[in-house]
Amino acid sequence: MTEQVIPTKQMPPGLQVENVDDRIMTLNVGPQHPGSGHMRIIVKIDGDYIVDADPDPGYVHRGEEKMAESRNYITNIPHLERPVIHDSCNILYPYVLGVEDLVGIEVPERAKYVRVITAELNRCIYIQYWLAIYGIFLGHSTMFMWPAGDRELLIDLMEKVTGARVTHAYFIPGGVRNDVPANFEDVCLRQVNYFEKRIKEYADIFYDNPILKARTEDTGVLSREDAIRLGTTGSVLRASGVDYDVRIKEPYDVYDELDVHTNVLKSGDSYARSKIPWLDMLESCNIIRQALEKMPKSGSIRTKLKPNPKGGEDEVYRRVESGRGSAGCHIISKSKPEPYRLKLSVSSFRNLIALPYLLKGEKLGNMPAVYWSLNYWPVEADR
Amino acid sequence: MGTATGIIKALNSGIKHLAVKRFTLRYPEQKLKFVGDGYQFDPASGVAIAGNKGRHMLFHDHCTGCNLCSIACEGVAEAIAMVKVPDTWGHNKKSIMPQIDYGKCVFCGLCVDACPFYALYMSNDYELSSFTKEGLIYTPAQLQVKPQVQQDSELIIDKRGARHG
Amino acid sequence: MSVIAPKFRLGYFLKAIFDNAFWILTLVTLAGIPAIQIALFLMPLPVIDGELLTAFLAFTWLFNPTMQIPLIKALLYSDLFRIAAFPGFGFAALIAAGTIFVERKMLAKLQLRVGPFYCGKIEGILQLAGDGLKLISKEIIIPAKADKPLFWAAPVLFVGTAAAFVALIPVAPGGWVVADLDVGLLAVFAVIGFFPIITILSAWSANSKFPFIGGIRALHQMVSFEIPLILSLLGVVILTGTLNLSEIVESQSNFPWIIFMPIGAIVFFTTMLAELERIPFDLPEAESEIVAGWLTEFSGMMYGLVQLGSYLKLYAFAALFVIIFLGGWTGPVFWPPLDAELITEGVPIPNYVGDPILTVATPGLPLFDKDPNEWVQQQQGELMYTSGQLLISGVIWFVLKTVGVIFFILLPRGVFPRIRLDMLLHIGWYKLIGLAFVNIFIALGLVYAGVIGPGGIL
């Protein structure tokens, strides 16, 4: 190997000397790159093999948690949904459940069902977007267009219910802000059925495609013990053989009255990690149909809050299964309308731990497949 | 041979989709129709009415200048400022009404939820671009005008696929 | 353009018109007219009907009805027309432009969206012209440390080699090929061997990491797929016994070779996709890993030239496939045949009193008629086809078959993801060479069994 280089001039403080090897090239898969999202990965490659990978998140850090300390519980809602704009219901869910615990109010039954339906719709919307980007990272342009197009069916539904296509700002402590429009059940059922028919088409062109299988099978294998040890969650965990879904283990709202199955695959490679969200979407369609049937036909959808709601000297932590994994919110309140400290614990950041571990020794061509298959959303990881 | 059948099935799926109708909404010629009249809030029951969250509509005969919408927006986007209006109303002693800066507004609708007098609604209009930043600030007089929208396309799902027609 | 357009002022508008007119007139008089005169002085002038055709004579004859047709015929058979228009660059560029548009629209339909639809009234027909104008108007940025002569030369070399490839393809019966070589197929292999060199030179001269990786990958890909490409075509060469492309087409007048060499056709198709850098083999420009591969540093018209070269290559490869496996221009003739007498003798045209004073050559297609005594028409008893009829029918069949093959080249773009480098090398060096050898053994077997080939049954 190389010897230590002794700098001859006085180095300015803060700069490091890095030894440059003859064979190893440092590539900056940076934020301005079609294959990286809003994140930088510093990759050192030796020929075609990755020797070291250093993820560098933080490009989209906006200080959501700090900003939450100066806004009251209601005005926090449009802020806290910004980390994942299309999955906004699932990001707000733990926050809203936490505030309801702090303030001490009960949510009416119909509101719970509406929440579950919109949360599942948002999960499908997010997974479609993630799948679209996964397709384009692998060079499959049809797999970018089809999910992005079919997602419009569900975004249209969300627009009918909440009024906005993304960043819905729909949940509020106490229920939801407005009731579903008049003939929503029929429209929703029709579009969700057509959506399910469309996503079953992905099997032929993507999941059974021999080129895709040869490309993603046995790459980035995360064994069961490692998955648990590194603290991964969500689809990454379920693809390595661990049967854990927050909706079943710690059910919230009406998930204990619905029939929810989890999909578990044992191989732990990128192919399994890319297939689990698709199976999850098929499961979500079932949940939506059940919830539409069981929803009470009338009832209030919001419990009225006192103006300036505040909790006592209390702290609460609630957890929810979002599109990527378990998302949690820890709120500490000190008898004021603003939270004293709010922490969002997101699954993208936790799954990122696995990235340098998985990329060592991989070929460069596998990098996008492994990186994006960790169900990683850069904006959420930075909050 | 597994790979050969996989390849042929993929090609087959591709060719089949050449016969499905296109899904695109051809935007300036076709515009999507929205359900209802816009997002509204009913202070009596405390529940909002579903609708599209577009440009706001201010009803001058209900607005009392109570400042609640501006206070609600302070924590979110600080897009509402109260300005003096030239006309005098019986119920609006101070003659102030909200002016909304759409360069800052995030269209969350919390201002509509805050208004107790049925004065602020949201409408279906979303085409708000302008060439200058000052053009994005809508005065109360501009907010009074009901937007003219020509939206008539909707999503049709039939045997040949889904399309916007 | 990041500036908001300034308001319209008549003075500036008139000044812009005046400036443009001034520069156009200056360039035309100072540079254009001397260039035309030099060209006319140095160009070899053809001889028509025993008279040397100068420019003045050409213009005079253009308005003389009896001499118009021989003039146009002489120009049609000249070398310049062949290189620039019909089987050469113009024809290929037209098909390439059509291919780009059809690719965008067909992929869009497959992906349930519309594709270009603003430019041009009907579904975006003028999109390509718009893209060309945009590329011409962009600034060409050269990296500071790039190797300037090579970097500038690379796109031009690319188009030049692609055009050389196009020059070897025969399009229609009667020797319509720009370069009629006896070892045409060998020349094709030689030209194809240039492409990896150009790719690696342009990648290296850009002096940047991503083009470097892309160039290495392109080199691996093109070199490892050249051998199966050559081997898969050797099967047909064994069966026909000639390397001349026109003769290969002639030998398929009864049946195309794809019936006997299906494996060869599949191997050639796959290696064709790899040489063209089409998906699933577009590693050298893998967008999500190495920005744009060896094309990263090209901007403006250099990128446009590389795309043009790429699509010319696509047309040339598809045409090669059609020639070797699908029968080139053979196919049933569209028109009905005419009486043999009409063609060899001509049609007598009477004057107003009824005496025949004029005999006109074959009605309908006088332009494409060579002297009927030279060119043996296709004869069926008392009926005959003129060479003109055979020509147009041949061209139409050729274009139809090429368009069909191009459709199948464009289709995998919507259906497959990109493959990885080690999978590509494995396929190129193991599987395809094996299949190509199987193909050659089948060809040898057919020849020695006396089925096909010289002295065979068929």
How does this model look, in words?
The complex is a heterotrimer of chains A (383), B (165) and C (458). Chain A is α+β, with helices and mostly antiparallel strands and 383 residues long. Chain A is built from 16 helices and eight strands. Chain A has helices at 64-67, 77-80, 88-103, 109-137, 142-162, 184-200, 202-207, 210-216, 224-230, 235-238, 246-249, 270-294, 347-352, 354-359, 367-373, 378-382; strands at residues 24-29, 40-46, 49-56, 171-172, 175-176, 313-321, 326-334, 341-345. In chain A, strands 1-2-3 form a three-stranded antiparallel beta sheet. In chain A, strands 6-7-8 form a three-stranded antiparallel beta sheet. In chain A, a hairpin with a 6-residue loop joins strand 7 (326-334) and strand 8 (341-345). In chain A, helix 3 packs antiparallel against helix 4, helix 5 (142-162) packs antiparallel against helix 6 and helix 6 runs antiparallel to helix 12 (270-294). The two termini of chain A are 40 Å apart. The mean pLDDT of chain A is 86. Chain B is α+β, with helices and mostly antiparallel strands and 165 residues long. Chain B has a single domain (23-164), classed as Alpha-Beta Plaits (2-Layer Sandwich). Chain B is built from four helices and nine strands. Chain B has helices at 2-16, 68-74, 110-114, 140-144, and strands at 40-42, 47-49, 56-58, 80-84, 96-101, 120-122, 137-138, 155-158, 161-164. In chain B, strands 4-5-7 form a three-stranded antiparallel beta sheet. By secondary structure, chain C is mainly α. Chain C is built from 18 helices and seven strands. In chain C, the strands form three sheets. Chain C has a three-stranded antiparallel beta sheet with strand order 3-7-6. Chain C has a two-stranded antiparallel ribbon with strand order 1-2. Chain C is globular and about 80 Å long. Classes of the chains: A alpha+beta (383), B alpha+beta (165), C mainly alpha (458).
What order do the helices and strands come in, and which of them pair?
The complex is a heterotrimer of chains A (383), B (165) and C (458).
Chain A: E1 24-29, E2 40-46, E3 49-56, H1 64-67, H2 77-80, H3 88-103, H4 109-137, H5 142-162, E4 171-172, E5 175-176, H6 184-200, H7 202-207, H8 210-216, H9 224-230, H10 235-238, H11 246-249, H12 270-294, E6 313-321, E7 326-334, E8 341-345, H13 347-352, H14 354-359, H15 367-373, H16 378-382
Antiparallel strand pairs in A: 1-2, 2-3, 4-5, 6-7, 7-8
Chain B: H1 2-16, E1 40-42, E2 47-49, E3 56-58, H2 68-74, E4 80-84, E5 96-101, H3 110-114, E6 120-122, E7 137-138, H4 140-144, E8 155-158, E9 161-164
Chain C: H1 10-42, E1 47-48, E2 51-52, H2 55-62, H3 65-76, H4 79-84, H5 89-110, H6 127-136, H7 148-166, H8 184-192, H9 194-205, H10 209-240, H11 245-250, H12 262-275, H13 287-290, H14 301-326, E3 338-339, H15 340-344, E4 347-350, E5 356-360, E6 378-380, E7 383-385, H16 387-410, H17 412-415, H18 421-448
Antiparallel strand pairs in C: 1-2, 3-7, 4-5, 6-7
Helix pairs in contact in C: 5-14, 5-16, 7-9, 7-14, 9-10, 10-12, 10-18, 12-14, 12-18, 14-16
